[in-house]
Specification:
The chain is mainly beta and 98 residues long. Helices cover 8% and strands 33% of the residues.
């Protein structure tokens, strides 16, 4: 699972019938501090996320396929499974005694 920011959506006039009704999002992967980290990719939306949302993306086929909830679909590689409200990040502080 990775953090990502939704940067757009993908629209198509024709798509495979198994994917009809599914929303496709363009997302930018983020590191743990929520800074852009990599190249944008497309993920199937299962939580009604919107542009600007920080989301969790599953990158494993079986889990992504299951999260969409349509058992008859063709394979799915990546799926948005959560909209992130808050991230608490605690950087480990090395204590040095003199």
């Amino acid at each position: 699972m990775i953090f990502a920011r939704v940067i757009g959506s993908v629209e198509s006039t024709v798509k495979h019938f198994h994917y009809e009704g599914l929303k496709l999002l363009l997302v930018m992967p983020l590191d743990i501090t929520l800074v852009d980290s990599g190249n944008p990719f497309i993920a199937v939306d299962s939580v009604d996320a919107g542009v600007g949302d920080i989301v969790l993306v599953i990158e494993e086929g079986w889990s992504a396929w299951q999260s969409v909830g349509k058992q008859d679909l063709s394979p799915i590689n990546k799926a948005v499974v959560a909209v992130v409200d808050k991230v608490n990040y605690y950087k480990k502080i090395n204590k040095v005694e003199v």
